Amino acid sequence: MSQITSRISSPKPRDFLKGDEANIEDETMSDLLNFIEPTIVFRVQNALFGLPRSQVLKSGFFRGMMESPHLGDSKEGTTEHPIIFDERTGITKSDMKIFCASLDIRAFQVAPTFSITEWASAYRLAKMWEFEQLRDYIFKHLNASIADPFERIEFADALGFEQWVIPALAQLCNREAALTAAEGARLGFDRFAIVCRQREDRRTRHQVLEYENRLKQPVV
């Protein structure tokens, strides 16, 4: 029985990325397993999840684990010997449910109607487990779906999208309305101070791209 205890390597998600466990009903084992083709079985919290072996082997993480002479026993990944993700991994049952639903995303004619936080949860697992195509697909979906600069900064911090931060700050520098105290709290003191400093320069109203260039300059 393989027990996975390593933590997710991407930045720790903030509270707004946590799944709503209260809305997840307990399923029986048979509800969560799919034996249409050879299946690898995982256990998260008190639930078993079955993923098609062909899909699992697209993951560099799992492919390496299953080919290992120490972890690749033929009994591993069965209902009797599931691969276990315990509480130290930070993975919840709701995380795994969303990931399973998104794994074969290209089979959908229309993208599933997940919330942004659910897409983010699936992204974290796709990145950690090296499902590269799924990771890239979800990134493009998130990039197209999140427009609010505050949300882009928050998700950038949670998921490691550093390239989102400066353009979002530049939008706030260029905004007509002043930032509120609540918005400053969302940004954090350092970023709030940077935006305010740029906005104080009223001699010229810059375009967003000009603000991006100014924000990239080192602080003297």
Fourth CATH level, the homologous superfamily of the largest domain: Potassium Channel Kv1.1, Chain A
Q: Biggest sheet: strands side by side, in what order?
A: 1-4-2-3
Report the CATH topology name of the largest domain.
Potassium Channel Kv1.1, Chain A
Summarize the biggest pleated sheet. 4 strands, mixed
Mean pLDDT: 79
CATH class of the largest domain reads Alpha Beta
What is the tally of beta strands? 4
Give the overall silhouette.
elongated
Q: Helical region count?
A: 11
Separation, N- and C-terminal Cα atoms: 56 Å
How large a portion of the residues is in β-strands, by DSSP E?
Answer: 5-15%
Query: What is the count of distinct domains?
Result: 2
Low-confidence residue ranges = 4-35
Indicate the CATH architecture of the largest domain: 2-Layer Sandwich
Determine the fraction of residues in helical runs and give it as a percent range. Answer: 40-55%
Features:
single chain, 220 residues, alpha/beta, Potassium Channel Kv1.1, Chain A, 2 domains, 4 strands, 8% strand
